[in-house]
User: Fold this.
Amino acid sequence: MKFKSKKHQHLVESAKDLFWKFGFKRVTVEEICETASVSKMTFYRFYPNKMEVAKAVFDMVIDKGIDDFRELMQSDMSAPEKMRKMLQMKFEGTNDISKEFMMDFYNNPELEVSTYIQKRTGEVWMSIIEDFRQGQRDGWMRNDFKPEFILFASQKIMELATDEKVLGLYANPQELVMEIANFFTYGISTHE
Assistant:
């Protein structure tokens, strides 16, 4: 994501911090402006409403994640090291996510942002599937699995990640996300 100015960048980063902590519904444009130290006029110069800044936040996070993932996939690291690095990236990417964020952004079909996230996530997964195929060609991923399976599994996993009972098992959403990522990566076997 390209920012038009430092104020624009600070606005989006401030919105991200607030959304991650409080979810989408609870955060107001006024709170975003106050946290970013910008006027409402500046906010509305960049975004017509809170929904559009939420989409920009998601785009910023997704774009950075894709860039980091591609860099990792193209590195000369060993397969186990790449897997550890993927989990570390997941951990860092989910830092400070609140239960409210999980419920608002992933389990709230009446919010336009939920639909947008599903659409963008689908686009990203198609790209990631191709990266996994490259990993298979390069020999560090098993040839006997279908990368498309990961797309379908991730959709079902998100249903788990936003289930109140499942969320209740963990101290915070990041702990649950990391449990899912570790389980998906290593199963129930021990690992470093």
